[in-house]
TrEMBL record:
Entry GO MF terms: ATP binding; tRNA(Ile)-lysidine synthase activity
Pfam families per record: ATP_bind_3, TilS, TilS_C
One Gene Ontology biological process: tRNA modification
Free-text note regarding domains: The N-terminal region contains the highly conserved SGGXDS motif, predicted to be a P-loop motif involved in ATP binding.
Function field: Ligates lysine onto the cytidine present at position 34 of the AUA codon-specific tRNA(Ile) that contains the anticodon CAU, in an ATP-dependent manner. Cytidine is converted to lysidine, thus changing the amino acid specificity of the tRNA from methionine to isoleucine.
Domain Lysidine-tRNA(Ile) synthetase C-terminal: 359-427
Identification of the protein by name: tRNA(Ile)-lysidine synthase
Organism listed in the record: Pseudomonas guineae
Upper classification of the organism: Bacteria, Pseudomonadati, Pseudomonadota, Gammaproteobacteria, Pseudomonadales
Binding of ATP, residues: S25, G26, G27, L28, D29, S30
Substrates-to-products reaction catalysed: cytidine(34) in tRNA(Ile2) + L-lysine + ATP = lysidine(34) in tRNA(Ile2) + AMP + diphosphate + H(+)
Amino acid sequence: MNLSARLLESLAPWRNAPAWHIALSGGLDSTVLLHLLAGLAQREALPPLSAIHIHHGLQAAADAWPAHCRELCAGLSVPLQVEYVQVAPGASLERAARDARYAALAARLAPGDVVLTAQHRDDQAETLLFRLLRGAGVQGLSAMPVSRGLGAGCLVRPLLNCSRAELLAYAHEQQLSWVEDPSNADERFSRNYLRRQVLPPLLKRWPQALVSLSRSAAHLSEAGQLLDELAQQDVAAAETSNEFAWLALPSLALPALRDLSEARQRNALRYWLRPLTSMPDSEHWAGWQALRDAAVDAAPVWRLAAGELRRSDQRLWWLAGDWLRSPDVPKITIQSGQSVVLPGNGSVRIDGALPAGAWQLDYRRAGDQFQVLGRGHRDLKRLFNELRVPVFVRDRLPLMRLDGRVVAIANLPGLQGASDGSWQLNWQPPTSDQGLS
């Protein structure tokens, strides 16, 4: 089966997409992808086709590439959009450039749109070797999936079953021209070193190495899917209801996890944490054991890249964003029906009619007491213990004071306002959303 037929077959699941966008660098791989698709569009009913060139501005040679891509697309009657991006400085220039590129592509996608990238079998093998040398687990060694979500649409890699040699032969046959990225010869970059120094001797000894490595990546991808299915079951068993669901924070019941083997615990937590934070390395998982096995009356914390996992009353809670910062004391007066934004702590609202008086929003202070109907005055610390209020919530739970006395505690049944229900203090807590998922 020739390249055009194989490409069309691999894209069959996305034939009804609203549009196909080709990520066009101007290099060999994306040039061949563009040429193949432009030819298919002349004889097949395909979604509207266009190209996107991302200009990073990282090297002088790249300044000529947009003009090359415009000329190439004009000759094939394919619309082109050039996007200029800034690459954030950091430890890994490769990662920063990739992140900027995918962010720009995602911004261009309407709901259901598909962006097509030209990674091939050789790239898949390099990715597998690179991640193997970094000690990745099953999910990491699955290498690059054929498709994944991106922005409002999805990213598809339709050439993963093709070798670079096949693409090069096609380009020569069709007399295509393409740009060469000078950085591809810089062996300080790990992938270039693998491509230029490691793979050639491997292929000399094992000519089918690329096919074998690609096949291994597919097997690992299938194993990863099975692990995810097991994790879904384990996480579902731990996502039980709780009386503090109004916190709207990701949480799990610890006993349900404790019943699992160590390996299943880690698998379930990796799956649950994946959209929330980057995964810790193997040594850092000691933090999970310390969190799990701490004394019942302890308040352990497991700090991760994008937030913290806390334990309170046999439940795990994920905290990030404003939850990791102490809120400022509001010193705000409030009136009936008024909604007030609390700095770094969500918002509160009085539902009902407040009696006359100097009402003030506040947080708890040392020695605070609360008069509980039929039980007299109770120390706030002991009261929170009785109600099993998570420790991390206690110092940011909004209170109402009247003449300095605590007369309402937001969101706690029976304590959040007048005993006759004529008014209540309701709190909308902050979220743990970091915008990283």
